[in-house]
Amino acid sequence: MNSDIRVAVVEDHESMRIALERLLDSAGLCVTGFGSADEFLRGPECALFDCAVVDVHLPRKNGLELQAELKHHAPFSSLIFVTGHGSLSVGIRAMREGAIDFLEKPIDDQRLLDAVQRGADLSRRQRAAESERLRLASRHQSLTAREREVFALVTKGLLNKQAGAELGTTERTIKAHRARVMEKMEAESLADLVRMAAILESNSG
Amino acid sequence: MHTVSGLRPLRSSRTRAVGFTSHLESRRFETILAQSLAAIARVPTDEIDHEIEHWLGEICLALDLDRSVMMYLNRGVTHRWSRQNIPRVRYGTTALHVSPWAATRILAGEELVWSSISELPRDAEDYKRWLRKNGPKAQVALPLRAGGLVVGGITFGKFRSTRQWPTALIQRLRLVAEVFGAAAERKRVESELARARSELAAASSSAMMGELAASIAHEVNQPLGAILSNAQAARRLLSMPATDPQKIASALNDIVDDSKRAGEVVARVKSLFRGERTACAPIEVSTLLSEAQTLLRSEAAIRRIDLRITVHPSLPPILGDRVQLLQCIMNLAINGFDSIDCAQSEQREVEIRAEHEHEKWLRIAVCDSGAGIDPKIGERIFEPFVTTKPQGMGMGLLIARSIVERHGGKIAAEANARHGARVSFTLPFCPHAIATEVPQ
Are B155 and B123 in contact (CB under 8 A)? Predict the structure, then answer.
């Protein structure tokens, strides 16, 4: 498995935590253990983990509360819950809130590692998408007001002539603006530009 | 025959003699009557049945009667006496077996008094048939009452001949019915209470068993989970080309440790149940509380309650039944948990403290940060079915109290210093331990 996957183990039973750390380490992952929800959430690297393996029944702040708080601290970390008592209602709630898996102790190693892999993949995809969106947003920021109007119209599928009519200018002016938009947005084709518009739009909230 | 149903007799009796058949009979009967009423009134519950039958016999002998029976609507015949050679009635025989006619009359509160079968009315055909086959030639049947309701009847019969029933005699037999009936009722109520109490204890201990089982499962599952993960890690490490053997060794060491831990849990559970019947043995307070902690830990974790155990050092051992004391401590702690849930307290803490109350006494206190005790309930909290919890049975503290009192201690509940409740109990230290270990 990919050794640059960073995994957190949050478990209050020390022997269980060490065992899980050792297991994940033996699979070539980069593991850090935490004894409580707060220790994990307040750690400086909290947002850097690709995946966290969390015991549901942590004292003081339990796994579900950790999940809710983590959404603010690190929205792109995946969670895998482990539990000593299989409680269906807790499991359903955790999964509905976006957990990758809900595993009962004793835990099968392959199922855990598969879940970690899936969680890490998901986190990384989400993070890549987010950084792409941020990059595009900053490029979009560099456009002039008129260029943004042209960007909006041509990515909606309007021809230069139609966009010119819309903005009350000539087709030639539009063509010039459009070339600068393509350049500033680093788009290779109109199709590329349309994809960027979709990303900016979908995640603009 | 005459029936005395409050006011109106069905048919007037031909046998309304006022006195007894003889002066001698009267004196003998008065003596027996006084003795029997005194004896029945003060007899302990477990001897009531025997005593009632004995005095039914004495009364019959004094009056030269042959058989007396007490029977109840729901249980049939419960007490009986009969002279030798006179047919006995089987226990459990109900009045309806004998005669629906007679049963109906008695239940309506009537008294059936007759000196010969021929006095019985025409509609008593079923009764007459039964009497001709099995029964007496003259009889008095009076209703037995409990709480103002007729619950059964008592009969006095003569088999060898007919006889007269003077009014004075009937009055005295009424007194017998009242006192003997009350005694039988006392016995019934007490045995029913005892049954309810033992059912309750069984129910509560089976609920406790459920909690125990969940705790045990959790406690064993923890090391088991760690063992599996360590073993799987070791297997992975072995399959890799260049592995540090030290890593595998430490995985194996942890497996050994966790296996021991799981074994300890199992041993503890076994010892918990082995000691069930041995009533009194010296117990180390710290051991007792750490066992309680083990049993409560997972429940506390699930309910996100901070459970703290504080044991004052140098406490001498106590004398008692470990399982019962554990049940008592668990009842109090779970009560604390419930109270915290109930109050939805911000602070979620339960502390169990053990300290000296006195040179010879230990005090164990369970303090919670829950809702506290309603001052309106106060000390009644230890009574059955008194509860502050919406789903509570009101039994937890009652059971705790009975355990503490069985150990010679006292239990008390009070408001905690800042919030919640503090329930504490005292237990005597082991007598010879105190001699050697004086508290500092």
Answer: no
